[in-house]
Amino acid sequence: VQLQASGGGLVQAGGSLTLSCAASKIIFTPKTLRWHRQGPGKEREWVADISSGGDTTYAESVEGRFTASRDNRQSTAFLQMTNLKPEDTGVYYCWMAGFWGKGTQVTVSS
Prior knowledge:
- This protein is mainly beta.
- It has no helices and eleven strands.
């Protein structure tokens, strides 16, 4: 199983980024995909879920600013992040069926 998050970068507060998570060697469609992040000096925390049918749930800290989506035909999930805040800084990971992908760094400057 391979999960690869990408799309991170450096952005000013208030800016936007869209992350992607490409999956391979896994049956993508029927599984929930989760986004997590780990800020500097912090524990890894859950950010968002998107179910196989596209139902989403979000951590309170990102509700209303982040939007998860997925393209099952492309075995890819997305996390659109808007109105970014410095506290959103961290390495973002995708997770599916017990497997973690390599993360992508998001840095939000104030």
